[in-house]
Amino acid sequence: MTTGYCVKCRTKREIQGATAVTLKNGKPATKGSCPTCSTTMFRIGKG
């Protein structure tokens, strides 16, 4: 599982429902949601 920083909870958490996406410049990223507060989480780079 990939971890990311939740801005709302202000802690590092596992990204729930993580999906791999590619940015406009070709860099890989991971997008998902926080398991606690359901806020969208985003992590740039390979997860």
Topology:
Blueprint: E1 3-6, E2 11-14, E3 16-22, E4 28-33, E5 40-44
Antiparallel strand pairs: 1-2, 3-4, 4-5
- Spell the H/E element sequence: EEEEE
Number of helices: 0
Distance between the termini: 8 Å
Major sheet, described briefly? 3 strands, antiparallel
Across the major sheet, the strand order is 3-4-5
What is the mean pLDDT? 95
The tally of domains stands at: 1
The share of residues in extended strands comes to over 45%
What structural class should be given to the helix and strand makeup?
mainly beta
> What integer value in Å does the Rg equal?
10 Å
Query: How does the overall form come out from the CA principal axes?
Result: elongated
Number of strands: 5
Query: How helical, in percent, are the residues?
Result: under 10%
| Uncertain regions spanning at least 5 consecutive residues | none
Structure described in brief:
This protein is mainly β. 0% of the residues lie in helices and 55% in strands.
Structure in words:
With 47 residues, the protein is mainly beta. It has one domain (3-44). 0% of the residues lie in helices and 55% in strands. It has no helices and five strands. The strands form two sheets. The chain has a three-stranded antiparallel β-sheet, with no helix packed on it. A two-stranded antiparallel ribbon has the order 1-2. Strand 1 (3-6) and strand 2 (11-14) form a beta hairpin. The N and C termini lie close together (8 Å). The model has no long low-confidence stretch (mean pLDDT 95). This is DUF5679 domain-containing protein. InterPro entries: DUF5679. It holds the Pfam family DUF5679. Residues 5-44 form the DUF5679 domain.
